[in-house]
Every structure is written in structure tokens, then in C-alpha cells.
Amino acid sequence: MRACARARAAVSRAVQSATECGPRAGASVPLLAGICSSTRAQLVHPVVHQMPSRAHLAVVLGAAAAACLSQTVAINGPEQLEPDALEDLARDLSSTNTADKERAVSMLSSLTLYLEYHSAMMKAGVFPALIKAILDARMVPQVRVIALGCAADLLKENEAKKIAANNSEFIPTLLNALKSEGGWENGPEEGGIARASSARALAELCAAPELHTTISRSGAARALAEHGAEAAEVSRSEDKTYSSLSEVPGTMVERHAVEDERFTAGALYNLASSSTGVTCILDAGDNAVLGLGRWASSKDPILQRYGVGALSRVGTSSPRAFGAVVDAGCLPALVAACNSDDAQAQCFAAGAIGKLVNFGGEPAHLLLQAQAPSALMTMLEGTKAAGPGRVSGNSKGVMRGVQSCAVRAILSTLSSQSFSKELLDAGLLPKVQKLLDSGLDAKTDAELIKGLGEILGRT
């Protein structure tokens, strides 16, 4: 109770201050900034921008936690937390009193959302205390699940990643949560929230290429690839539409499943950034690459981004990996992404085409068969970049960005005479002239003119 009194005075005002400014903690997993996590919206408060309601907390964590958090209290400055109070919260996570644990984890969950508080919490030993709570299978399920969400927030910090990687039990415990085993199935939504938080934590760890060997040895890389393949198989038949990056249609249970799949896709995208990670994906079997291809054609803009991005990274990493993409039948999906409704997916696809054509031989030939030159020409026009149902926005800047990606991809294909000829036949000259008349930027224009001269010189 002493810890609660001190922490209450330091934390509640901090939450209020952070709430007034809005959540500013960006996601270290690329492209996830648009996702509004519903995990703590279910467990701690209904909307992450607001203070938790007393009634909601009373249902989830008990009346004691609700009473503690609903107090109006003070903080040591608008952007500072009292170290002693944070240390008390960390100690309370190991308390023998369940109410102390509930109060501590609920308070921390309202702070770990904000990057500006991470340093103070790491210094106070909050992250090791959260790991201890996560590893304790005897812990109250709700407390354990919230602790997992808090840990996933703090894993944006490099120090937290190192601590997690050096704990031999942590990653295996995350895998249990991902599979709803080891007691996690007893948590809220039959383990659904824990699965989503586990996938998010693994995605943060995969964002550090230096940890890929550790992740591989733990079996997590293969587990993520298999889990992603299963999720992609289930979701491919869904007929949902997404009007924005943050929208997640469906019930709360369905939203947790979407978050689980999105963060798993993000983890595999991050994993594909190293040769070790790509090898793990390939070793997981044909279904792993097939899953990336299914995501590349998904209506979910986040899944599509990660699917195209991961497929691009895998396919351009080595001849063996490109062969796996072709064998899985995913090359058409990669080319088609040049004209998807998402600008980032378009640029991922265009960049991959540029690199693959430089491989020469079979990759260039197969891309010609897949009508990649025509796809780049349509992308160069920029009409798709401003489509009415576009989730990435309709600004002129988005259209210019897409066109710039197309230009860079075209310039990368100059080594192939056959590809250059197809570009000309697809109407490259008039499209380039129109683009030059409208203007991109001086450097891009100069590169485009030089590249066009090289193409014409060979033909």
C-alpha cells in the first residue's frame, strides 16, 4: 500500500499529462505507426487517449485498482516521473499481494505507451520486473497479459532488447503465448490478447538484425514463419475493406486476431532484413513464402505492405530465395503490387523488380513474362497513387513519391536490353516527357534523362 500511495502521486498526473499531449510513442517496427493497438483498450482502458474508467478497471482488475487509478494526484513536472515511485511499482510486481500487482501493472500500462517515459522506467528496473512477471506461470492471468503488453512497449528500447535476448526463458515464453500454451490460454479472449502482444514483442526483437541468430536458435523464427503461414491461409478468404491504416473491422476478438497477424507479418518483414532471417523463412518450408505472397495480395493495407516488403527482401536476397518465390507462385503478386492501393507496397514492389532485373538471366526473363514493364509504366503515370479508395492518402506528394519509386526502378533495369525494349514498347517516351514537363526534382529529372538516353542509344 505504501508503494501504491507513492506511485499514485507520481503516475496518475503523468498519465493525464501524456493524455493531453496524445500518444507520441512511434513504433520501432516499420509501418506500424498507423495501427491503434486494442490490447490495452480491452484490458485497461477503452481508448488509449483517455484515462481508464473506474467501472472498466473494476471489471478487469478489481475495485482496488480502479480506486487507485481514479485519484487526482500530482507529478514531479510535466515530463518527469519520480524514480522512487517507479521502483516501488517494479517491486510491487513481485508482491505476494495480488492487489499490489494489479495496481502496479495497470499504472505501468498507462505509461509504457509513451517513449519519453521509457528511459526512466528502464533505469528504475521496470523491464526486468515485467519479465519476471511474464515468466511466472502462477501469476494472475490478467496481470501477466498486461505485463506482456508493457514489455512489448519497452522493447522499442535497445537496452530492453539486450536484456530480453540474454534471458534464456523469455523468447520461449513468448512462443508459448503465441501458441496459447503454458497457461496463456487462460488469459482474456482465450489467449487472444496474449498472442497479439507476443507477436508485437517478437516483431520488436526482429527489428534488431544482430539478434536474428539468437532468435533463430530459439526456434522463434521458424515458429513465426509457420504461424504467419497459418494466419495468411485463414485470412485470405476474408472479404473486408479498410478505409484507413488504423481501421480494424469486426468484433474485439477479431481485432486481436488482426493485430496478431499484422505483428507477425511485421516480424517476418523485419526478419527478412538479414541473410540469417531469410534462411529461417526459407527453411520453414514452401508455405512460409506462400504466406508472404498471400499477404501481398491482401485487402488489409498493413498486411499487404509487410507481405510485399518481406517478399521483396526474400526474393532479392539470393538466387535460391528468388527460386522459392517463383516456386510458391508469388512472382505475379509481387508485380501486381506495383499498382496496389498502397503507396509503400508499390515502392517495395518496384524496388524489387529493379534489383531482380539486374540479376539477369531467368529473373529478368520471368519478370518480362509477368508483364513487369507494363506494371512499371502504369505506376509511372501515378494515376493509381490518387485513387478514390486509397488508404495511403490522395495527396500530390504521395503521387510524386510513387512516381519517383517507378523512375528509380526503371533506371535500375537499364542493364537489360530486352527489358528496356519492352519499356519503350509500353509507352515509356511519352510518359517520361509528360513527367519531365510536370517536374519531379532536378536530380531525378537529370537521372531520368540520362537513363533514357542510354536506352535510346542501345535501341
UniProtKB/TrEMBL annotation:
It is found in: Vacuole membrane. InterPro entries: ARM-like (IPR011989), ARM-type_fold (IPR016024), Armadillo (IPR000225), Vac8 (IPR045156). The keyword Lipoprotein applies. Keywords: Lipoprotein, Membrane, Repeat, Vacuole. SUPFAM superfamilies: ARM repeat. Coiled coil: none annotated. It is a lipid-anchor. Belongs to the beta-catenin family. This is Vacuolar protein 8. It comes from Coccomyxa viridis.
